[in-house]
## 1
Amino acid sequence: MVNEARFNFGERRAVFRSQNNDAVAFNITGTAFIGRELFSPVVRTETRYEWTDSLNVVMGTHTFKFGGDVAFVRIPSAVFELNFAGLFNFGGLSAGTLNSAFTTLGAPDFTPVQQYGLGFPGSYIQGFGNPVSRISNKPLAWFAQDSWKVRPNLTLNYGIRYDIELTEQIRPTPFTDPLSSITLSASDIQAAQDVLNVRQGFPRDTNNFAPRVAVAWDPWNDQKTVIRAAIGIFYDHPLLAVAFNSDIADAAQQQQSTLLPGSPAQNSLLNAVQVFQGTVCVPGSATPGICPAGVFTPGVAVGTQYQFGRQRFNDQTFPGFGQLLPFTLPVANDFVYAYANQGNFTVERQLTKNMSLSASYIYVGAHHLPLPRDVNEVRQDLLVENFRRFANRGPNSFSESTLANLFPTTGAGGAPGGTFTNSITGETFTTIIPGFIVVGPRGKVISPFAANFFRPSGSNYFLVQALTGLPPAAFNAQLAGTLRTPTTVIAPFGDVNAQSSIGNSNYNAMNIDLKRRMANNFTFLASYTWAHSIDESSDLQTLLKPMNNRNVRLDRSDSLFDQRHRFVFSAVVMSPAEWRHSDSGWYRFLADFSLAPIFEASSGRPFNILSGVDANYDLQATNERPSVGANGVLFAPTGPPQDATLGRNRGITHRFMSLDARLTRAIHFNERVRLDLIAEGFNLFNRFNEAAASPFFPDVNTFNQRAPGGRYYSRPTASFDPRQFQFGLKLSF
């Protein structure tokens, strides 16, 4: 009987700061990303105390082992300034956006670079608020297992493990919107989260029991053949960073402000173009030459500091909730920890005295994988029907469906009870709430911005009160007859990108190894793997949300890390030791040389092809894919809301092939002192190996290369290293 106890203490400090600390960021699609890194700075301190104890007991043919561990993880301070630098996106611009006459004349659209030159960004995102969070966690686990030697040629291993994490339960933060003056208590924020079944921090998952069993068998008891098999359940520990993000990006401690394009005029509603061109005029302040006295920008709170020349706001002065409410990064209330059913079966046979062959099958079926999903998605059906009430037809694009600038706010038609002529149908409409609700022949029509795009969380009461003075109750009273249902809970949420646990993956692999142990100054390993990995999401990144949040199955495809074929050959060849004392000068010269080559050949890896166009009207263009024409050419869908027809991860890089080698010459001065002369070469044939390709469909079409299985190659954007040599000396004494 042996007992082993351990105690561990560790402290980790992580500091990451962008080299462009004061610069705003510009994302010019397909061309460049300029400025500060958006996930910077990160300053984190983490302490960990851990106790582990295990007891080993040998009883006859059984070897029992029992144990457990407990850890206390504490992050007393972490700084995360998500998007605090500010980001302008340039993804291309329709010519008709600047002047509708350009569309009639057939003018070509502007490229992202031209759009940047025009100073007309497609959107602007900036984070505001308190970047500091504190969080802790207590992982606990215990296990019991037995290794039973059933017979001399048969061993059975079986056991069970239990894991639980006593996660910190995070309470929401109260907040007052500086623009509308609407105040939300911690209870109000909690009620808004409850409507969407989300929370800050992880819930506690208490049923994580993981049984396992394995067997090793020598069927002929000749020590030349062994069969191994194992199966078990293995639980994952979710990243503490997810809980941290949910604490920070909650629309109360931090606000993620998103602005859309608009007019650069100082008195237009706050938009991305004004921020880029420096025409933001804060109420109560004047900037000679730009903001004359009495001219101000609606949608900007008093006290906001716009930083002229830096094209951004002071990140500690939030301008207020505007047309788009902030996105948040919570965790689903029903989140459970991921687990995998893992199994393998291996047969290994000795071929000769020094050589063996093994063949293995590996299966991993993972369930409840973290998958980011917008649980507050736009109701596209109501958005389209709302537009139809106004225009007597469906929208031709998402931007048209927003009804931007079609409800008058000035003149006789811009007053309550005033009438105006519908610019699309020529019909007469009556204003109910200027800029927000009108009524016509087909009923009441509401501004999608005021309706918060018909999201489940409720209307954008902040925008309405800021621009009209109407409190939520008064606005609710006018919603009867519109497609927007009134709510008693006031939620400051736009996209609610919740970490859910609905993902699944499936991995199957066959591995064949031919091994020769070192004998006669020579050893090698030849390995071939065929594998296939399928999932709905390969990462925790927000940008990898499904294309359709209501139909995750549309994203089930080959994983980003799927690699169908991989062959590796490695060897070591050494000069015979006796050559060092040979009478032949040639043998003595070649003595103490060793050569170690490594050759690898593998399939390319998938990547997702993107359209950059919000074809399904969910206010998210970063996860949209193109559709496939009858001739296989990709195109961005237009017209009514629709999902693209191209599957996820249908792009693929070209195959990889490389030969590396290491040549070593040992010089022995005496029995205790030796000098090694080392020469290493990588990618000796200087082959171009593609590391990444452009994910944008115009580049895919231009490159015009198809891969088998309906896949597409694209313009390479990165490569692995070219041929390289390095030399070294190693002195042993």
Note: The mean pLDDT is 92.
## 2
Amino acid sequence: MSETPEPGKKSASPYSTGGGGVRLEHRLGAVFLTRLLTQGVVSELGDRAPVRVEFQQSPATTVDDLVLTTQAADGAPSVRLEIAVRRTPKFVESNDDTQSLVLALVKADLKAEQASASDPLVETRLAVAVSGQQTHCRELAELAVVARTQADADAFHTLIETPGKFKTHPRLRQLTSMVRTALAEIDGADAGADAAKDRCWRLLARLWIIELHLERSSDADWAALVNDLAPVTVVHSRDAAIALRNRLEHLSAEFAQNAGTVGLQLLRRRLHGEIDPAAHVPPAGWNRLRELDREARSGVARGLGTAPVLVLPRQALRDELRAAIDAPGSLIVKGDSGVGKSALTIDVVEHAESDDGWQAIVINLRHLPDNHLSLLDHLSSPLTVLFGELTAPDRLVIIDGAEAAAVAHGDVFSSVVRSAREAGVKVVAIAATEGSAAATELMKSGNVAPTQYVVSGLTDEEIDTAAGHFSGLQRLAHDPRARELLRRPIVIDLLGRADNPGLPLSDVEALEHIWRSLVRNGDRRDAGAPDAREQVMLRLAAHALDKGNVDDLLSRLDNDAVEGLRRSGVILPASGLPGTGCPNSNMTCSVSTPLRVTSSQNATPLPR
């Protein structure tokens, strides 16, 4: 699942094959990758930061060494800057190499003029980047500034030729002659003096000169990149900044070889582990998505019972599940309710995240609104953009509670899956067996169903370990019929929290014992009245089925009973999310995952 540059047609710059500035080109690419990474402005882009850096873009443009693009902003069009890199061009008629450069610039200018007429929302600019300060280029830069202030070619040429006003008029005559030669080559006939003057003015008005000191003989601008990069390195040191700068130069060479197109997301992925994530300003909604992630992870119990908590290694299943996640394509993890699917999957992912090679967003589908538009309104940014913030080589979206796609969450489930795929992120869905068919169908892509991994129940050895930890379960573990109840970790967890169950012989008897001991608290009144606790659970169950009014539900819940059920581990603590004031999941009374509920005093309704 590693990220590679977006491919394109390979091409070599005119100077790359002739020793005219390969190192300069790569270092200039590193400069603009730095601007992309730090969102630093580029004056030639109208003091805006680039959102994309493209390398070797022939045949898209004849000025193809580097192409920078900005976003449109504040009513201004986006800017596309096409850059030719030349170390020491000589803008005189006798220089054949520079005449070839002028030909490329004139062709690009004509194409940009046509493109501007058809798409006024993109302004194309041209640039020549050179090594350090050079007389010819400095004179061209002065001419270009003046050209952008004049209404037409006649006014421009008259102004420059005014005696005693500008010292650059000889350079303008040389350039005009070179432009005339270029037009003749393009058209196959002499365009004439007036046409050459007009095209020369238009070209200069679109032209910028970039003079940077990037080479060993004069590398002040190259050294200055260290200060720009230090704040985004992991340790914020000079040595780390130098290493990052050199890494960007190597990436620039790689992207040039592969005609790469690089956006911020791709660049951050290629630099994963080398840059400080906190130095990046994420899009709106990222923190809300992270809240959903924290909520989904915290809602999954990793151990059984109360202190001391028992954690079963289940190493064989973990190894198999890791291999299934590593395999290409989407994955659906399914199994009986309460068998430990979520805990295993999240544990495997978190262990992989610790080595910095994986990143995952975990979402419980039941925590989300039941339609795409409401989810977009809550997050403020498209999911594709938010998932793009993941930068590790292996990136995943884990969708827990995916069986809800069969009830009311099919639309938002499909949206999450589609957005993850568009962002190049692997999808792993976790669903109870009885609801997995709908999730599997919605995850199909090109008639290819996701791979399935089935989580089995506990082994006999694991049941014996649990029985040794919870002494009240030992008689159950030795009864062949009752032992089958203990295959699901959730049953062990609930029975371990309850009083000694004796020897129930069926699911019904086990559930009745859990209800009596945990929900009704053994008819004790120290954590809410037993009848009130029971009514809270029944009303939550009814709400899960009929989706009634949240405020009405919460107004009818006994707060002491809710708090007591929390302490008993039957429902989860109150959520900090604005959209989870009321549970949106299966009920604990069916031996499923514990619920999360907010008291009527601090509830916020779930968005619809």
Note: Residues 1-20, 576-608 have pLDDT under 50 and may be disordered.
